[in-house]
Design goal:
This protein is an alpha/beta fold. The chain is built from 11 helices and 16 strands. Strands 1, 2, 3, 4, 5, 6, 7 and 8 form an 8-stranded mixed sheet that branches.
């Protein structure tokens, strides 16, 4: 879908354009349906295509009305361009019909966006708002739109400072009557599920609680769309510390690696975020988890380099080494994290606790 292949229309012509699009499908097996409104805000940059893929993946699971707002990066001139397009699921796997209303804005014209969105969402349906810009900029347009939302999902990849990002989301959680989430937190769902299943074993959980050193290795290979590759590993380390009730003391880091110091009931603990490269894995994804206990026990969860969906799990003590077991992760696709956020109900207490912990971190150690 490219805007320059579509005729621009006046905002007052949107409903007429929607009806014309739907008429093209009448007489076919296409079904027009909408379970909710999905409002996407992004900048006109390399990540724009990624968010279009998210929209395609979402409608494979949930037919919805999509309003897509794209703002020029520089904003040197003022304009509002509008067009309506039909959106088919990626690979056209079903006969759902969903329309997408597109607003391209720049400069002062951005100020009318809230009124246009209000006019074109379906009021009787929930509204999910994907804000693909740094919330710590405190954009007044975003604040106004958040009041319409059932749930606001952010993308911490856009954050200039993860500490500032966490503080801003905590403030929003207090002030705005809607749920909040983050795509990078949702992308950790497979590893969190694996972790819970692994440490359901009392012996392994005891070893984890007695850790003195934890090492989380992430994929540092960046792309134009993903350059803040430490975020998911940072979330993962914070989640582990909170689940185990450890107290944060300090952090120290370089460009690619960070060490977080905690205090547990068994003594000091260091959680290290380490960088490695794997071209077979998406940027920022967890590659390996290791823990070393005060009793010289070692726990390993590691992705297979040739088959990254397979994770090897192994536990060894000073007297024995268990045979490894293997766990299969679900395949990742663009939009899966957004679908997870749509499924989620409420703002999970774990996520808020993690934001509170990250807000304490040295802002110079993470992006």
């Amino acid at each position: 879908m490219e805007a320059d292949m579509t005729d621009y229309i006046q905002p007052k012509e949107i409903e007429k354009a929607r009806e014309a699009l739907w008429k093209k499908y009448q007489g076919t097996s296409a079904v027009k349906a909408s379970l909710f409104n999905l409002v996407i805000y992004t900048k006109d940059n390399v990540r724009k295509i990624y968010f279009e893929k998210i929209a395609q993946q979402v409608i494979r699971k949930f037919p919805c009305r999509i309003i897509n707002i794209t703002e020029a990066e520089n904003g040197t001139e003022s304009y509002l361009r509008t067009f309506v397009s039909d959106l088919q699921p990626e690979n056209n796997t079903n006969s759902l019909f969903c329309d997408m209303t597109n607003f391209e804005v720049s400069g002062a014209s951005r100020n009318i966006i809230p009124s246009l969105v209000i006019r074109h969402i379906q009021e009787d349906l929930p509204t999910y708002f994907l804000w693909a810009d740094d919330p710590s900029k405190r954009d007044p347009i975003a604040i106004e739109l958040k009041d319409l939302a059932t749930r606001v999902v952010f993308d911490s990849e856009t954050a200039e400072s993860m500490t500032a990002f966490a503080k801003t989301l905590l403030e929003l959680h207090e002030k705005v009557e809607c749920d909040i989430g983050d795509l990078n937190w949702a992308r950790l769902a497979p590893w969190r599920g694996l972790f819970v299943q692994t440490f359901n074993d009392p012996e392994k959980l005891k070893s984890l609680r007695e850790s003195k050193d934890i090492r989380i290795t992430y994929n540092m290979v960046a792309t134009e769309q993903y350059c803040h590759t430490k975020i998911q590993a940072t979330y993962f380390g914070a989640w582990i510390a909170i689940k185990l009730g450890w107290s944060y003391e300090s952090s120290l880091g370089s460009k690619d690696e960070i060490s977080f110091k905690y205090k547990s009931e068994h003594g000091p603990v260091t959680i290290s975020i380490l960088a490695a490269k794997n071209d077979q894995v998406l940027p920022g994804r967890i590659l390996k988890f290791e823990s070393f206990s005060i009793h010289n026990e070692h726990l390993l969860l590691e992705k297979n380099r040739q088959n990254p969906l397979q994770v090897k799990i192994q536990h060894s003590t000073s007297s024995r080494c268990e045979m490894p077991v293997y766990y299969l992760l679900d395949k990742e696709t663009a939009g899966k994290s957004m679908i997870h956020e749509i499924y989620s109900q409420g703002t999970r207490g774990n996520f808020i606790d993690i934001l509170k912990l990250i807000s304490l971190y040295n802002s110079e150690t993470i992006c």
